[in-house]
Amino acid sequence: MTTRADVRLLLLLTTAVIAAGCGTADRRAERYRVEQAIYQAKKAETEAFLGRSHPDSVGLLRLRGDYLRVRDAAHPPFLRGSDREKRIGREALQLVAAAQTQAARFASMANRPDLALEDGRWMEQHAEGDTMTLRQADFVAAGTLRALGRTNEAVERMRAMLRRYEPVPPPKGTSQEDEILGVPELMAQLRRERGDEAGAQRELDYGNGYFKGLLEKPREPMLEALIRARIVRTDLELRRSPDALEQVTALEKLVAAHPDLKALTPELRYSRAKIELMSHPTDPRGIAMLDAFAREFPKHNLAPRALFDAAVYREGNKQFPAALATYREVVALYPRNLDVAPAALFREAMLEEQTGAWDQAKATLESIPVKYPRTQAAVEAPITIATRYAARGDQAAAAAALARAITVYESMIVTDSTSVFAPLCRYNIIRGHLVLKQWDKALAAVDDMAAHHPRNPYTAQALVDGARVAAANGQRDRAAGYLQLFLENFPNSPALAEVRQQKDALMR
Amino acid sequence: MARDTRTIRAAALEALGSFRFHEFAPFAWILAAELVVLFLAMNLGTAWGMASAGWLANRMTGDRVLHYPIFYAFLPTLMTNVEAVLYAFAGSVLIPLALIRVLRPIDPAAFPATATGARLKQAFFAVLVAAVLCEALILGWQFVLNQPAVLKAIRAVLRSGFASSMGVTVLGMLVGYAIWSLFVYIPVTAVQPGRGFGSAFGGGLREGLANFFPTFLVVIGLSLPAAAILLVLQVMGSFLVTQIRPEIIGVLIGLYAILSMLATFFIYSAAARFYQARQAEAS
Q1: For chain B, first and last CA: distance in Å?
Q2: pLDDT along chain A (508 residues), means of 10
Q3: N or C: less crowded end of chain B, CB within 10 Å?
Q4: Which CATH class for the A440-508 domain?
Q5: Where are the domains of chain B?
Q6: Is A257 on the interface with B (CB under 8 A)?
Q7: Mutate to test the interface with A, among B64, B68, B249 (most CBs of A within 10 A)
Q8: In terms of DSSP H, where are the helices of A284-372?
């Protein structure tokens, strides 16, 4: 009897202990499994990128699979049960969403934006109204549309995001900016990638209006400061120095009233220097202010840009040795900053040439595609060598440099076929073949470009060039075909009427 | 003292050489409980793991440790606390029981089978108070050792980060073992016939003080394998969690629990034999 009573008591106690933790145990266990799966995926990713050679598309899709497995660790719906359970479920959901974002990233890297779109769609379908997850899904979708070259759709999606999501104030005690505030700049960048500078200015203008609209409502001081800092940056890019000055003054007042905003003081100094230089480009005080800022805050994220700007203004003021030294300093101090280091290296080469050190300049230009393969400077450097040789009157060297440039562009495309610079690389290949009078190769390159980037602005120019070459070489049908493609893919082009006329002439 | 050292060494060797599972069984119960908790803790991805070991961890530090892989960085702390509670409460019955089983073949007249229940009741309170006091002193020592000024002083002497971290761990363990050496005779005296709380506690403490050095040497010698694992856990714990594989921590803790339980049993067994030998010599 006693034994049976003891067993009953033991069972009762065990049940009580388990029940005490059971309220949220199931949800916590689910979150824990999700974290385990993410850890495994991250580990696989780290291992894959350990060596010098990066994984190929099969390897990338395998990594995507590891991140996709994270969603198998949980069972939707995530937001169910009591408030506490929902809170834990939301954490699990956001972890799964982060893993899906990684999966989409690898799909894009593996040149499978269709899969990335699918991942984004899954997130949208399973977001259960969670704003953070929906935002991530939108970021994935916008990024994928960008990778697919559907710029207008990507920008439209980003605009919808700006309308839909309020910026979140940074966590207490930090100045960590919400990603949504970076969207207008992304929109402008997207336009620039397509060679559409006017479009970029339009997006910046839109962004400026968006930021100012945000300030119509009262915001937390840190969020307000971050929004004003964004307005200053867009005003500076739009070269509206009076507006920028007004915002800087308002920002300074805000920082003075809230000591916890002190972290923004360096940015204010940078903005003041830029405004000064915009109003008086030749005034050495502005350059000295940028220089002083970069030296005082070398680890600030604006320091590389400040030093680069100082070099640009020095070059503009024809202080070539000082400008050259500053460009070299940018490359030496911030070799991993892809925003300024490749451009600084390119400008360094240009100044080396101007100061008579052509061999040095050539070596510098040749180093850019090796050091910074996925940058605008890398695309410009090989063809610049050829044009500089041509400008110096050495036609044989120019032809050899052009042939070499074509090889460099081909290898850049092979290394990263989805790069935003791939269309420009292909267009430069066409230009190279045309200058070298390699007509068949040029036309083959036009075909290749039309197949890979049918709606890219560079393709429009390539089709017109291709039609001209094909017609000159007696291939009238091929020329007409190129012009027909132009008419179909670029219906809003200002050259439409002229192209139609050319095509009609060929058909006659 | 040299004679005492030789005697306790002989007692330790005898304890090692005459291992009988029947005597170790009470320790095996504590070990089994520890391993069950460890198994549950290594299965936090299941509702039952989270509802048991996860619940314990949640009670101790809240939800922030119930994440992967940081839970494994917290696991040694959880297991240390579980071990301390098991030793203090279950150990207050099971350690005297193991000692009675060790001493019965040596002195059957003093430890008759029929008196086991009464002897356990007699020893319980003294052993519990000794265990709680010993734990409190060890925790106090750890608190002192982790004060910034103390850590700074150790770092100043040992210079490099790794060496100072090793130094802190080794110093922590040595003083911890020294504290335990003072209390190791209390369960032995508590199970002797006719001992009340005062005489068991006082007598055990006096015995520990009188034979401190030889006992300390035996404690260190027998604890070496477990101490080596503890050293790895303390010095390389976060490296193992973040860089290698978090689950290694669980495996090492399991290994540590087994080795440390065996070491504890052998230490108590050696102390009991040594005490009996000294008593026989005195009479």
Answers
A1: 19
A2: 63 61 82 96 89 78 94 89 92 95 90 88 91 92 85 93 92 86 93 86 95 93 91 91 89 88 87 86 87 92 93 92 94 93 94 90 92 89 92 90 93 79 91 93 94 87 93 91 92 89 87
A3: C
A4: mainly alpha
A5: 2-282
A6: no
A7: B68
A8: 284-296, 303-316, 320-333, 341-354, 358-371
